Amino acid sequence: MDLGGSATDRRPLLLLGRSGEALPALAGDPALRECFVVTTPRESTVEEMLGTLQPTAVLLEASELYLEGRALEARLRRRSRRARILFLDVDRRWALWMEAESEESNDLRIAPCDLPRAGETLLDLLKGGAGLRRAALPEAIPLEPTG
Question: Has residue 28 been placed in a domain?
């Protein structure tokens, strides 16, 4: 007897990283009421929690992406190949979700939205919905002095 339902019937399990300026914007978001939301305790790391919980998605502050870049994502991927890793940035009334397209490129999927729709936009992304693809900028061509 299977009481858990199919994988598609399961409620998303969202693991929130350390709170900064962006993640608190999700608190009480009505779009997330159907999700299990777990906040990383002070005494634990996101990596530990990710390995234990195997969440649907890990939600992190965009500042972590800006400071650590792809190295952070690589560490998290070693803990769980299945979990999606998304970064949230907020600026007044706007929110921006960011997610790496693949491990092989530096391309990002971005999903801007009004701040009150941050939870709704997140769920849309998790279901494979909208988002804009932002190709990484090519490396600069070194210039030689013209003398």
Answer: yes
The alpha carbon torsion through 132, 56, 89, 139 (nearest 10 deg) reads: -50
Range of 68's domain?
11-134
Q: Phi then psi for 125, rounded to 5 degrees?
A: -65, -40
The angle subtended at Cα 61 by Cα 60 and Cα 65, nearest 5°, is 90
Which residue in 31, 43, 38, 34 sits closest to 17, CA to CA?
Answer: 38
Q: Which amino acid is at 63?
A: S
Measure the CA–CA gap between 22 and 118, rounded to whole angstroms: 10
Q: What is the CATH number of the domain that holds 96?
A: 3.40.50
- H or E element, residue 48: helix 46-53
Give the pLDDT means over successive 10-residue stretches in the chain (147 positions): 46 91 92 93 91 94 92 90 94 94 81 94 87 52 62
